[in-house]
Fold this protein.
Amino acid sequence: MYEKITLDNGVRIMTERVPGMRSAALGIWVGAGSREEKASENGAAHFIEHMVFKGTARRTAAQLAQEMDAIGGQVNAFTTKECTCFHARVLDDHLPRAIDLLCDMLFCSNFSERDVATERGVILEEIGMYADNPEDLCAERLAAGVYKGSPLARPILGKKSTLEKMSGQWLRDYMTRHYRPDKVVVALAGSFTQRDVDDLAARFGVLEPQKAVTFQKGSYQPAFTLKKKAIEQNHLTIAFPGLSYGDPDRYALQLMSAALGSGLSSRLWQEVRERRGLCYSIYTYSSDHADTGFFAIYTALGRETERQALETIRSTVADFADHGITA
């Protein structure tokens, strides 16, 4: 059973001991993703995620990496449209060191202009990498279409024109405004001591509240997007209105997705690939946010099979809607 502590400044600390484990997983979740960004700020949340690994007042970037590797730990981070997460996994003996490391990165990062310039180049290469991946590009174009007019339509990584205007001081100021304590959740699971929990409470308890930042609500809208690219296959995603992540029907949607397009026995896999051989890959997934979401079917296929595959997908979905899940 997990335990929850809410500090005076709003930081929530969630802990759960797992008997028999000798390791601990620590995650620091901040409700500051790309949807809080203005158009001119696009890419800021992800840029900050990169910059906290570039060195602090106490440690260089190399020392941050070496210190975690020296104890056999794992540390990483990711950014979504609604949050940024910094996480680590270590043996329980090394948990105090991991706590110190992650907190040093979050609270004392340098944001030097030299490092900002270097990391900007890294992110631009990352953008190029995703642009070369048709599956990722298809998902990005879909979000841009169905959420047009809202921040959810913009890419998490940003774009060159916005990234080039971000300085170290600007990123630091953005982080101060958006990393509010009431939007921070610290999660600790595995093997740990009360001293570890007290250490986290002391470190996060000193964060000062900031003025609330609001974001524009998003809503699903029908859309058609097309991107021509010189590749062998056409990558296609068909989307339908979905659910927010707080909707009580989200579990039913997950069950529906499993039956329709997740796994080798799913309806779409059997009909489109196994029986007709029209594609190599086909699956369903849902994308959910605080106030909206969509459900999607993805596949990649050749031009010669596209029309037949689309008709098979349409008829399979229609039959599924009429008759539901069957044995």
Notes: The mean pLDDT is 95.
